Amino acid sequence: MLEVKDLHVCVEEDPSEKILKGVNLTIGKGEIHAIMGPNGSGKSTLSKVVAGHEAYEVTQGDILFEGESILDLDPDERAHKGLFLAFQYPVEVPGVTNKTLLRQAYNTIAKEQGREELDPIEFEDYINERLNVVDMKPEFLDRSVNAGFSGGEKKRNEIFQMAVLNPKLSFLDETDSGLDIDALKIVANGINQIADEEKSVVMVTHYQRILDYIQPDHVHVMLDGKVVKSGDKDLALKLEEQGYDWLTDLASVSVNGEQN
Amino acid sequence: MSETEALESMVGGEYKYGFTTDVEYEDFPTGINEDIIREISRRKNEPEWVTEFRLEAFEKWKQMEEPDWPNVEYETPDFDKVQYYSATKKKNKNKPESLDDVDPEIIETYKKLGIPLEEQKQLQGIAVDAVFDSESIFTTFKEKLAEAGVIFCSISEAIQDHPELVKEYLGSVVPKGDNFYAALNSAVFSDGSFVYVPKDTVCPMELSTYFRINNMQSGQFERTLIICEDNSQVSYLEGCTAPMFQENQLHAAVVELVALENAEIKYSTIQNWYSGDEEGQGGIFNFVTKRGHCRGDNSKISWTQVETGSAITWKYPSVIMQGDGSIGEFFSVAVTNNRQQADTGTKMIHVGKNTKSTIISKGISAGKSNNSYRGQVKISPRADGAQNYSVCDSMLIGQTCGAHTFPYIESANPTAKVEHEASTSRVGEDQIFYLQQRGMDEDDAISLIVNGFCKEVLKELPMEFAVEADKLLGIKLEGSVG
Predict the structure, then answer these.
(1) Could you tell me which residues are beta bridge partners of residue B234?
(2) Contact at 8 Å (CB) between B272 and B472?
(3) What are φ and ψ of residue B329, in 5° steps?
(4) Neighbour count for residue B464 (Cβ, 10 Å)
(5) How far is A252 from chain B (nearest CA, A)?
(6) Strand locations in B382-433 (E)
(7) B438 touching A, CB under 8 A?
(8) SUPFAM superfamilies recorded for this chain (chain B) (predicted)?
(9) Are B422 and B407 in contact (CB under 8 A)?
């Protein structure tokens, strides 16, 4: 599904600020991955770069989606291919309702993928059914996108959008942070409903707790712009107990030329 | 052509109204003096009192200076080079009785603009007065409106056919010497629409005037007068376009609205004059005086404007709330791009008791444009319980444009309540990235953000126009984030 190869990325406005320093990552179809790591390790940047954020420049390496490089594609073209990013800080769009945004988004993507667009009535039925995934009330659809939403509502809205747009690969950038335990369960439950054999999910997170509700197939640890360790769910538990310090040594080893 | 298609072609697309129509004009000298004014009046076959009205205005205008307080920069037009009257040659001097008397080129022009004048193709539910340079060419649905007692015709015709009404109201809201451009208009006004809605009548259709400047040398000095008698209602919409010329054209209009007891006038504008090219070459100078007078108790006047065109816009649709309990409203979207400059807003003058006004202004600037909101709220000593609520929001797209807000509040009554809110925001990269991530391209993303920003105003437009105004905003801002 997704292959990140030796990805080096710096900040567009300040090329001396290198954030990713050779990331390698392979996400297979239907897999759930978790990327963990301390603040500043490059997890969020990786999500944004995969989605095509213009503030970053790829200086080396490649990103392949279903076997093709997507580096030259605009963010909307990547979305048309079935890539979704749940934002760490969802953006407010005052005056535009959730429903308006989603209908335009859904139909644009459907058109690009050669699927049938939905008329307003069909869309109404579809979107109402999708509300159940994150247990939201229909009133939610007529509110302006994220405007005046609580932190938890914004995160839930991201998963709702994911449920409506039905992407092949989703990056969830710290979707779990700022959620109380009830909201966390709802969000996790939603993600579990969406993820299936065809769809892949990458959860970028600080905390192990969401992994109590979503079973990842693979867990990766990022430190200083690289993936320094990959493993299964046990790795996340180990991090929870021991923190990241024991991995710092690994990071310096790989700087010396050894593969992590 | 369906109504929606017609309206779509009226406002949609990049500036596709820049063509000129090849028609023969009557000879008319350029420049302005007493003889010219008498000649305009003579050609229009006007009664002596109208000639006098013009000449008095001209005398005042000569004493006046062009205002320099608006936040716009331009070279003052050379008033001696403007042609103040521009009529096409026709076989029959009188106003055409049927379309057969109208130059087919002009009918074709309106068709291209999305305003078919032929009876079987006319827009359903909307009566149209088509004004081409200085003349009203044709008015549709006149008979149907007459059945309801509503008079809808050009002001020139009204002067001939309903002189008593015009005499009573012309200049009663915007006096001859009100300001520099209003005085100029009063001296040389060409054509425009006249609406009279008798007592206890709800006008059965939307009324609309479509203004077209075609002649490169001529200015357009339209004059519109709308009178709504007791317990009556009317909704009126104007649209305007012009060809693309290298030179600037002058458009100085005066619009007067009179609402008597319990009457309601809703006046909507979609202004899409040619705005000049990217470098600021050409475009219309739009210097307009629009004012409504809530003369009767519990009357209401509502201005809604979507200003997207013109090189320079200088326009403050106002309401004088004289009747007790009367209401004034102003809903505005002003978009400037490239080198456009707009200084626009409103004046709400509270005279009567318990009068209420609402101002919602949304300014959007892109490119190297400059967009100013200028609004005055004035509450007179006897306006007990007056209330005003104002919101003016500005949105910036890119780094090279400007937005300014100049609110003036004067309250001479301690029982009055005045609330003013203002905000400025920038369309951020993050907002655009968010929407792009959801599949929209950059232009659609900006369009959606802008439409959301303007929603409170757009919802005030008659529905079929709101949809098209939406699109127009998107087109106007295409490619504005580089």
Answers:
(1) B265
(2) yes
(3) -135, 145
(4) 18
(5) 34
(6) 387-396, 402-411, 417-426
(7) yes
(8) Stabilizer of iron transporter SufD
(9) yes
Helices and strands counted in chain B (H then E): 11, 21
- What is the complex's ipTM, to 2 decimals? 0.94
Domains by residue range for chain A, with CATH: 2-92+169-255 (3.40.50.300)
Residues of A within 8 A of B456 (CB-CB) are 95
Of A76, A94, A161, the CB nearest to B440: A76
What is the pLDDT tens value at each position of chain B, 482 positions in all?
333 343 333 333 466 677 777 777 777 888 899 999 999 999 889 999 999 999 999 999 999 988 888 888 888 888 888 888 877 776 555 566 677 777 777 778 777 777 777 766 666 677 888 887 767 777 778 888 999 999 999 899 999 999 999 999 999 999 999 999 999 999 999 888 999 999 999 999 889 888 877 777 778 898 999 999 999 999 998 887 776 777 777 889 999 999 999 999 999 988 888 877 777 788 888 899 999 999 999 999 999 998 888 888 999 999 999 999 999 999 999 988 888 888 999 999 999 999 999 999 999 888 888 899 999 999 999 999 999 999 999 999 888 888 999 999 999 999 999 999 998 888 878 899 999 999 999 888 988 898 889 888 888 887 767 766 777 777 767 766 65
CB atoms within 10 A of CB B455: 19
Q: Alpha helix (H) ranges present in B104-178?
A: 104-112, 142-147, 155-161, 163-169
A76 at the B interface (CB within 8 A)? yes
- For B452, which residue in chain A has the nearest alpha carbon? A95
SS3 for B19?
coil
Residues contacting B293, CB < 8 A, separation 6+: B172, B173, B256, B257, B258, B259, B301, B319, B320, B322
Q: Give the sign of the dihedral formed by CA A10, CA A11, CA A14, CA A17.
A: negative
**DSSP structure string for B421-449:** EEEEEE--HHHHHHHHHTT--HHHHHHHH
Choose among A162, A105, A99: nearest CA to B445: A105
- CB nearest to A74's CB, from B434, B436, B453: B436
Triad A109, A112, A116: Cα angle to 5°: 75
Contact B435/A at CB under 8 A? yes
Q: How far is residue B476's CA from residue B424's CA, in Å, rounded to a whole number?
A: 20
Q: Is A143 helix (H, G, I), strand (E, B) or coil?
A: coil
Q: Are B266 and B424 in contact (CB under 8 A)?
A: no
B429 at interface of A, judged by CB pairs closer than 8 A? yes
Give the integer Cα–Cα distance in Å for B233 and B296.
13
Decide if B424 touches A, using CB distance below 8 A: no
Is beta strand A218-223 parallel, antiparallel or unpaired with respect to A144-145? unpaired
Give the whole-angstrom CA distance, residue B279 versus residue B311: 11
Write out residues 441-470 of B within 8 Å (CB-CB) of A.
441-442, 444, 448-449, 451-456
Q: Which long-range contacts (CB under 8 A, 24 or more apart) does B95-101 make?
A: B95/B136, B95/B154, B95/B156, B95/B157, B96/B137, B96/B138, B99/B138
